Amino acid sequence: MKLRMLISLAVLVSGAIHLWLWIDGFRDLTVIGPAFLLNVVAAAVIAVLLLAWQHWLPLLLSLGFGASTLVAYLISATVGLFGVHEVWTGFPVVAAEVAEIVAIVGSAVALWHGYRLTSPAQVRHPFAAVHPPRAD
User: What is the DSSP letter of 29?
Assistant: First the structure.
């Protein structure tokens, strides 16, 4: 649970930084503005899911969130993304990239750890009855 809390915090930090940047002027950019706002909403939803639902899907979502956000920034900082060319400086850049790396690595570790500890005999079908059938 501690790892999920760390991943949730990392996702929220990334989302908060994108909200800060959106308020600071990115909202005026045609494609990037709505993408930043979508990033904020997705971060909030994923962070809640990570803490409320003990399932592998929120971990996969946080891994995808971190990876897609990091890749989008790397594209923006190298060749440009929708006309935006970012630079590799400043607190928001460093904090967001660290948070996204923590989300990626933490999610991968949690997924691997959960998969490694589950043998096929322990897997219960998600639609199986909560109580096993009675033998009469």
Answer: S
- Return the structure tokens found at 40: 């904020």
Rounded to a whole number, what is the largest CA-CA distance in the chain?
70
Joined tokens for residue 60: 């996969």
Distances (CA, A) of 16 to 23, 67, 70, 118, 123: 11, 17, 15, 34, 37
Residue 76's φ and ψ, nearest 5 degrees, are -65, -35
Per residue in 15-74, pLDDT (tens digit) is 999 999 899 887 888 888 899 899 999 999 999 999 998 888 999 999 999 999 999 888
Q: What is the pLDDT of residue 79?
A: 85
Measured between alpha carbons, how far is 31 from 55 in angstroms, rounded to an integer?
33
Closest by CA to 67, choosing from 114, 105, 113, is 105
Alpha helix (H) residue ranges in the chain: 2-23, 32-52, 56-78, 91-116
Q: How far is CA 79 from the centre of its chain?
A: 24
Percent composition of the chain: helix, strand, coil (DSSP 3-state, to 5)? 70, 0, 30
Q: What are phi and psi for residue 124, nearest 5 degrees?
A: -110, 135
